[in-house]
Design goal:
This protein is an alpha+beta fold. The chain has 12 helices and 22 strands. The strands form 5 sheets. Strands 3, 4, 11, 12, 13, 14, 21 and 22 form an 8-stranded mixed β-sheet that branches. Strands 15, 17, 18, 19 and 20 form a 5-stranded antiparallel β-sheet that branches. α1 (18-34) runs parallel beside α6, α2 (54-66) crosses α12 (435-450) and α3 crosses α12. The longest helix has 20 residues, at 104-123. The chain starts with 7 loop residues before the first strand and ends with a helix.
Length: 454
Amino acid sequence: MMSGISKEILHGTKRWTFAQYSNKFGKILNATFSSTKQSNQSEEFDVVVVGGGIVGAASAREILLRHKSLRMAIVEKEPKLAVHQSGHNSGVIHAGIYYKPGSLKAKLCVEGLHLAYKYCDEKKIPYKKVGKLIVATNSLEQQRLADLHDRGLQNKVPDLKVLKGVEEIKKIEPYCQGVEALWSPHTGIVDWGLVTEYYGKDFKDSGGDIFFNFEVNGFKESSSGSYPVNITAKNGKSLNAKYVLTCGGLYSDKLSELSGCPRDPKIVPIRGEYLLLNPKKCHMVKGNIYPVPDPRFPFLGVHYTPRMDGSVWLGPNAVPAFRKEGYTWFDINVKELVDAFSYRGFQKLIFRNVGYGVQEVMKSAFSRLQLKDLQKYIPEVTAEDIKRGPAGVRAQALDINGNLVDDFVFDLGKEGVGKRILHCRNAPSPGATSSLAIAKMVADRLEKEFELKK
């Protein structure tokens, strides 16, 4: 197991830099996937998984490990796995502190935490257990911190500890200010895109096929009696399947509608934009430093996140994206934009959070407006120490009343081939941390719905 924030990685008896490690194993993975098929005819499969993100890849892997005789495939619209949410995130391995005790999210996160570390150890995927501090800066936040501590204990988050006063805080984070903090030593960081590629490699090694550049645009009845679902792609290619599982992330609502399922819950794209800390000051951040979340708002707030390459990300904010893959304000798809803003649930969400939304948009336009939030924890950070960084787009599920859908949603068509298509319409954050635990649940659900024998 690997810990600390050193950029060097021990592998066997040789000490490698992270860049050398990623370069070597990236080449191995690329060689593995270079032989991945590009579909030219309607091949036949027992189960096809639509979506090559971390949940889709983990679920496909789990199903095939359980049912080794099945012929399975993953179809992915991009030229590789984990292009969007799974490859554009903070890279944190969450411990399960925030979630309602007894909820499925809490259970899956804590289980996923242990499974993730075990998997990374087995595959020798580099990670760092840098820990997380959730820092209170006033008496109100101290009260909320006490509630978080209670939640964490009920959720069985390992080795949580309350730090009283700035002196205890500085033993963990020497440059951090605060009056009290919650310390989670088992929170970590990893490259979730790399983890997804390893899931895909496991799937292929078990006999599965992966078809890239396969953007699904329809499900219809095939002419093959044994494989009744014909899955078509925009490029004219198609596959036949007995059963289909969709894990479409940002497109999960659209995939569900293709098989006759209702519009709700609707996926609305929310962009999170990060800033980058001056490399000369990255030594000030040992691990994750988070604010105490404000329960009035749906997001965690601006935080310090160290990365596997030694950089430190600051943020993110939360602003509406103008297309499902809208990583900048200039990424606009008029049809998708109208579709999102015409949804009553999204209108209600905006109306209820208009003040918060305006603040976030202003912070996006003027990045230095986030400086005050950052300086609450590390006062030495100045305006010259921050610059614009990467962004990710979150698939936020909403109901018609404008409520964030905070639980897992599965859907099944009611007629025709739709009865053979199981949709994972919402796999809420932290989906990456929970991916192996989610995969077990998805495989259980697939076995139940389609009566697959274990």
